[in-house]
Amino acid sequence: MEPVTIIAVVIAVAALAVAAFATLRGDGRETADQIARTTERLAASQAELAGRLSQIAEADAASQKALSERLQNQEIAITKTLEERLADMTKKVGDTLQQSSVKSSETMTKLQERLAVIDVAQKNITGLSEQVVQLQDILSNRHARGVFGEVQLQDLVQAALPPSAYEFQKTLGNGKRVDCLLKLPNPPGAIAVDAKFPLESYHALRNATDEMGKTQHSRAFAADILKHVRDIADRYIIPGETAESALMFLPSESVYAELYANHPATVEKSHRARVWIVSPTTLMATLNTIRAVLKDASMQEQAGVIQTEVRKMLIDVERIDERVTNLQKHFKQAEKDIGEISVSTSKVTSRGQKIERIELGEGADAEEITAGAEIHTLGRGNA
Q: Is 372 domain-assigned?
């Protein structure tokens, strides 16, 4: 049943109930006509109400239809907007994922490259560790340590000096063989360099844990250094053959630093013995100084050669000056001869002109010809 019909029936029932209640309270004085009129009014009111309700229902139906259409249009618009936004969001998400994928790929590539570099560095570190272990093995053996010092000494000397300025494993006049002999002019003369060094006491000093042990091994270290200094002074300083001093090469900067930092008395004693202790750094500075000395000596030798050649050149210049002087004399004599020849040619020209005038009959007489002959004779005598 429609809602309008239900409402009309409810209103009619309510009107009949009101009319019945009014009839019951009228003490029976209501007549049938009144009931009929009341019923008619109720029916007319019902019809009017039904019409209005019908209009309301039609208007409500139209409103519902318009509302439905509007809602449908809004739903379509919203659906379209949502689809567009969803598509845009999907595109953005796709682009973001693609960019993230590219960046992730680049990051992974860089990470792989860095891992490769780290792997190479790790291999290098492993190789360096092995080399350090080998170096420790070398330094722990006296003979190998000496060879190591000699090799390092050779590298430094060959890098700083010309081949003519040094000689390795040179046997001296006393039969001792020195690791390297630096050939310098007198003074100072050839300088011997020893590449061996005491290291056992130094290791013991570095490994000492208490003050007593450090003091004991420090004294042993100083004693070993001084013993080696005396050996070098006795073996490699030979009057008349080598310089008055020698070099003790320590191929370890740490040993050199320990010696000069904590054992100044030992260093002073080595200086008194004319044995100079050098490290790789100070040896390079010393070699550079030696190279400058050699260069200066070479320049002095070349200066002597130049002076000799200049003297010879001055003698040649004197000879050239003498010969130029002689040539000037010849030029002056030739100039004089040319002048006399010019006078003679002038006279001959003059006489020829006179003879020409005589042939043409221009006033020359026999006396002038005779006088001219006498002048010619005199001129030949003076020529």
A: yes
